[in-house]
């Protein structure tokens, strides 16, 4: 079971950076360099997550895409989709964590 976030804001960073804001876009890439794992890519992590979500789970496509912060290409659809699916995304992330437990 994951620990609850201290905030209910969907905009709050889950993994805060050293100054309290979100981690930089390069944080994971730098971590992989520091631990000398140049055979692994950040994109590979994201791709593995997306494959797992599509092939192993029954979570809706929209939840999986939102978890990856993918932009909705269809402007009409994007205009009408205003929710953040935070509860469903939390369930997805709990399932992802349990997959590795």
Description:
The protein has five helices and no strands. By secondary structure, it is an all-alpha fold. It has a domain at 44-100. It is globular, with a radius of gyration of 15 Å. It starts with 26 loop residues before the first helix and ends with a helix. The mean pLDDT is 85.
Write a compact overview of the structure shown.
The chain has 101 residues and is mostly helical.
Helices, strands, pairings?
Layout: H1 27-34, H2 42-56, H3 61-67, H4 75-80, H5 86-100
Class of secondary structure makeup: mainly alpha
Strand count, sense and barrel status of the largest sheet are:
none
How many E strands?
0
| Integer average pLDDT | 85
Number of helices: 5
Question: Which descriptors apply to this entry?
Answer:
single chain; about 100 residues; mainly alpha; about 0% strand
